[in-house]
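User: Quick sanity check before I run a bigger batch. Here is a single chain. Can you write out its predicted 3D structure?
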Amino acid sequence: MQRMPWPEYFMNITYLVSGRSTCLRRKVGALAVKDKRILATGYNGAPQGMPHCLDVGCLRQQLGIPSGQRHEICRGLHAEQNVIIQAAIQGIPIQGSEFYCTTHPCVSCAKMLINCGIKHLYHVECYPDELAERLLREAGIRVERMPFTPPVTSAQSGELRHG
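Assistant: Done. Predicted structure follows.
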């Protein structure tokens, strides 16, 4: 029996993290990894102690804002932002790390990841943001879309299993 490769292992965990998301439109998980160790995790949702979209509804949905536009009109933080914040709070440098995201980052998160000094970005799902892709490429960050079947979570099936 062969062991699961590291990228697949970390992406499985990234999808488990996304299960904590409180976004009604897209559940996203992210994590920073260095030397095969998880440094920080994050999922998209409202700031700490504030009502979540699950509780009060989605403002972007109510206003008919399409995916990939007007990110500032949202009560939630992106998963990538939460990884950066959690690492900063704990005093954990993520410079030189690999970053795993269920979904390709938007341009705002891409710029933050560039400034954090990540070296490699893995993602599964695409996102409609060509500028984000271009900036990451210009910054010399290796971006890799993984062929990956996301695990089915307990919220979807009543149990955790790899789909």
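Strands lie at 29-34, 37-43, 98-103, 120-125, 142-145.

User: Great, the batch can go ahead then.
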